[in-house]
Write a structure and sequence with these properties.
Blueprint (H helix, E strand, L loop, with lengths): L1 E7 L5 H15 L3 E7 L12 H6 L1 H5 L19 E6 L1 E2 L2 E2 L1 H7 L2 H7 L3 E8 L4 H14 L2 E9 L4 H14 L17 H6 L1 H10 L22 H23 L6 H32 L4 H12 L15
Parallel strand pairs: 1-2, 1-3, 3-6, 6-7
Antiparallel strand pairs: 4-5
């Protein structure tokens, strides 16, 4: 009997739906036991978020200084053959509860020398968050064998409106009489995520101990948006600069920090409306001149599962 730990943190319920879609085929398998573990912050994060509290979380998120989480359950402290970590992206970083787990003694013990599959559900930017995740997993001695990413299918312009409205009001839309589509990962993409669980269910029971090869290669687990790579790199540097400044002004919620935070929010909106489109345009213009570099970049960020979809048709064979 193979044992799988599915560890996640979900506020709106979107990531929980994705997790259960992927793990459903594993639960149905007679030779696999699934344990779900939803991380619980000691002080719950609100959803929907109050405006200032939402942005006031970003300095500690970016600097990997999370609020504490409650101890994980006893059943989640066992020995597992595979660990699936599903997470949200907050400010180009893993959500604080996930970071808190990765920094915990339980995380250190559970993940050492274990195969790990990461699952991300987000708006559209996840590369820098996954870079942090890869570094932390490597430090803990875990082996990242696959990564699954589900993103909002709407355009960047549409999600620039729909995602903040959803986060700050709890209303997914659609908005403005349908001009802006419903926020979040689509129901169809969530349903189709079961194909990853089907692939795992077929391979895990016969997989050799110590096998670190991908189980999801060829299933279209990730799609790399070349236009957003440079924007993410600029964004994470900006977050660190402003994050350091805000942390120097006091703890979350203090008056001085929140006053400067309002200046930062205005700066962030201007940056998104100007720097992101410009870097995307520059990327489009220079990509033909650097095809080989761009291809290597795509391959790097798509690893370990890759962007290929050559196995999808064979899943039901």
């Amino acid at each position: 009997m193979k044992k799988v730990l599915v560890l996640y943190f979900s506020q709106s319920g979107q990531l929980s739906d994705v997790v259960h879609s992927i793990a459903g085929p594993l639960e149905a398998a007679q030779d696999i036991k699934v344990v779900y573990e939803c991380l619980v912050p000691v002080k719950p994060y609100p959803f929907p978020w109050p405006f200032l509290q939402f942005f006031d979380t970003f300095p500690e998120t970016v600097y990997d200084d999370p609020q504490p989480i409650a101890p994980i359950s006893e059943v989640a402290k066992g020995d597992f053959d595979l660990i699936i970590i599903a997470y949200q992206v907050w400010f180009l970083s893993p959500a604080q509860p996930i970071t808190a787990f990765l920094q915990s003694t339980d995380g250190e013990r559970l993940l050492a020398n274990k195969p790990v599959i990461t699952v991300i559900a987000c708006r559209n930017m996840w590369l820098m968050a996954q870079e942090k995740m890869k570094t932390r997993l490597a430090t803990l001695g875990a082996h990242l064998i696959d990564n699954v990413v589900l993103t909002d299918p709407a355009t960047s312009a549409a999600t620039f409106l729909s995602t903040p409205i959803w986060v700050l009001t709890g209303n997914k839309g659609p908005f403005f009489h349908g001009l802006v589509p419903e926020a979040g990962v689509s129901a169809e993409d969530t349903r189709r995520a079961a194909r990853f669980g089907e692939a795992i269910a077929k391979q895990l029971p016969v997989r050799a101990v110590g096998d670190r090869s991908s189980m999801l290669e060829g299933l279209g687990a990730v799609v790399i948006n070349d236009k957003l790579v440079a924007s993410e790199q600029v964004g994470i540097r900006s977050f660190r600069i402003w994050g350091a400044l805000l942390r120097s002004l006091g703890s979350p919620g203090t008056i001085l920090r929140r006053t400067v935070l309002l200046v930062y929010v205005a700066f962030l909106i201007i940056m998104i409306l100007t720097v992101v489109p410009i870097t995307a345009l520059v990327k489009c213009m220079t990509t033909p001149l650097m095809k080989q570099r761009a291809a290597k970049q795509r391959e790097y960020f798509a690893a370990p599962s890759g962007e290929g979809i050559n196995r999808v048709a064979r899943l039901n064979e």
